[in-house]
Specification:
Length: 150
């Protein structure tokens, strides 16, 4: 389980950097920047939930600028990798209690939260790609997982 999620997190970093380059190349269209800021903020929120830490301050849709994203991508990747490396195989079955942004309480297994984290990034990168096309981008990066592992 640990090796699997480490591989997915490495893929996530690769795909985030690839789509960031396209955001910058397209002139940083606002909808794409907003989606990327949300993707990165959500990674931080989920990490705190997994660690049982209080919710971080700030918005789920922060007003971050594209020139801060590369560092955020790398910082988020580092803390997630460190977190996963500190887990035992049994830890992936742990129940993670948390509250969503509306204050509703939920509990999910860690392995399901991690699957969500990766899928959430993929979902929003697809939306970013669409926004980049709307902004005139002719070519998008190859961010499919299978492309990454080839």
């Amino acid at each position: 389980m640990k090796t699997y999620f480490l591989k997915l997190l490495n893929y996530d970093q690769f795909a985030n950097k690839a789509i960031l380059k396209s955001i910058i190349d397209a002139g940083e269209p606002e909808p794409a920047v907003k989606l990327m800021a949300h993707l990165l903020a959500a990674q931080q929120i989920w990490l705190n939930r997994c660690k049982g830490l209080p919710a971080i301050g700030g918005a789920l849709w922060p007003d971050w600028k594209a020139d801060t994203f590369e560092k955020l991508i790398d910082d988020n990747h580092t803390v997630w990798i460190d977190y996963i490396n500190g887990l035992s195989e049994a830890d992936f079955q742990n129940i993670i209690p948390y509250k969503n942004s509306r204050g509703d309480s939920y509990e999910n297994q860690l392995e399901d939260v991690l699957a969500h984290l990766i899928n959430h990034g993929t979902h929003h990168r697809a939306q970013i790609g669409q926004q980049l096309k709307f902004a005139g981008a002719e070519k998008l990066p190859l961010t499919d997982y299978i492309f990454y592992i080839r």
